[in-house]
Every structure is written in structure tokens, then in C-alpha cells.
Design brief:
Length: 56
């Protein structure tokens, strides 16, 4: 996604941060945190850390 000039007062559209898998893993953790499931949130964080270590 290319950044385009914006009119004053309009929010700047930024490209997504991280790869699709990073975004999926972060979303899974966020959902577990919202649901109050600390163990599942921790598991998502561990998997994301491994993904980052091996794929990036």
C-alpha cells in the first residue's frame, strides 16, 4: 500500500505492520486478553515469539 498525500485533518493511512501471520497471532492474543484467558494469551505470545525468531 503506497502512502498518499492527505488533506489537512484527515488521518494518515499506514500500511499494515508485520506479516499476515504476525497480525493473526497478535489478534489471537488480544482476543484471549479481552476474554480474560491468561493462559491462552500466554500461549499466543509464545507462539508469536517463536514465529518472529524463526521467520524474521
Amino acid at each position: 500500500m503506497a502512502l498518499t498525500p492527505q488533506q489537512p485533518g484527515e488521518p494518515v493511512q499506514m500500511p499494515p505492520v508485520g506479516c499476515a501471520e504476525c497480525r493473526r497471532l497478535k489478534a489471537g492474543r488480544a482476543e484471549a486478553v479481552r476474554a480474560g484467558d491468561r493462559e491462552l494469551a500466554e500461549a499466543w505470545a509464545i507462539v508469536h515469539g517463536r514465529h518472529v525468531r524463526y521467520c524474521h
